[in-house]
């Protein structure tokens, strides 16, 4: 199928609009939509905070009567099921669009081609596959949620030149500069949940919130602690009713810990453990996916990083490297993984490399 340069430009715009919903629309996908009639954009939309209204509905409302005879560029197949709102494919049909260009099909069993079939049955020209690779990249979290029952995982590591995240005494603030830290907050904002291990929660007393970007939706804060031994004199405990805190724990935590965190407003999620007593990382992610999470930003610590990498669950690896060396006595950014041979290690390919302030950011994606 041949697409024109104009088709590519309009779909690129739809993709850029859809990205505005990343981290804000779960459990729904962050879709973008552009309506064009006689070479003029008459409507633009992206999925709104909380997942509704959908991108197509927003664009159609903006276009009004101008949607009649227009072409709709949509980054994901229009939905065909009725939830809290009606099907987007029916809304496009009712508006009288004449052509729909879709970047990527929706694997959700409630859609899975039905949206396209309804459009075609209504006499609308339907074309698919424009900017498909970019759309698959943007919708990766939603696609993994629907096809593999887990969210997309971004593992972020901020370390010294020699791969350390703290000195021998535990000092870690701050290895990277303020520009890198601001960028990390922007990355948090584009994910549904922030994930850390219990060791990091105990050592750093982190807030795990998005700061410095104005009034934005906050990601769910997830902590993995197999025995639920987390301090109640902490920022997470004090703010659990303000910003969601989900605690993944193993079987039989102390009742007083369960009671304290439950009363504080946290949601507790029991997850089976693997030999050694750690939580099963795959089942942690499955539990998050079942609750609608599509994009997870893991920020530590070394044990959590090793666990996710060892299980082959990291999709994006983002490093912020600072120009200082701490030495072998410092804390390594990734814990022991038990690898004996190089082929056992997951390979990533470089996606982006750039300087941020005085530090270097390198973004890798799983090969």
Automatic annotation (TrEMBL):
Pathway: Cofactor biosynthesis; riboflavin biosynthesis; 5-amino-6-(D-ribitylamino)uracil from GTP: step 3/4; Cofactor biosynthesis; riboflavin biosynthesis; 5-amino-6-(D-ribitylamino)uracil from GTP: step 2/4. The active site is at residue 56. Residues 5-127 form the CMP/dCMP-type deaminase domain. Gene3D superfamilies: Cytidine Deaminase, domain 2 (3.40.140.10), Dihydrofolate Reductase, subunit A (3.40.430.10). Binds 1 zinc ion. GO terms for molecular function: 5-amino-6-(5-phosphoribosylamino)uracil reductase activity; diaminohydroxyphosphoribosylaminopyrimidine deaminase activity; NADP binding; zinc ion binding. Its EC number is 3.5.4.26, 1.1.1.193. GO terms for biological process: riboflavin biosynthetic process. Zn(2+) binds at residues 54, 79, 88. NADP(+) binds at residues 158, 174, 200, 204, 226, 301-307. It catalyses: 5-amino-6-(5-phospho-D-ribitylamino)uracil + NADP(+) = 5-amino-6-(5-phospho-D-ribosylamino)uracil + NADPH + H(+); 2,5-diamino-6-hydroxy-4-(5-phosphoribosylamino)-pyrimidine + H2O + H(+) = 5-amino-6-(5-phospho-D-ribosylamino)uracil + NH4(+). Signal peptide: none annotated. Keywords: Hydrolase, Metal-binding, Multifunctional enzyme, NADP, Oxidoreductase, Riboflavin biosynthesis, Zinc. Its cofactor is Zn(2+). Coiled coil: none annotated. Substrate binds at residues 172, 188, 208, 211, 299. In the C-terminal section; belongs to the HTP reductase family. Converts 2,5-diamino-6-(ribosylamino)-4(3h)-pyrimidinone 5'-phosphate into 5-amino-6-(ribosylamino)-2,4(1h,3h)-pyrimidinedione 5'-phosphate. NCBIfam families: eubact_ribD, ribD_Cterm. This is Riboflavin biosynthesis protein RibD. It comes from Actibacterium pelagium.
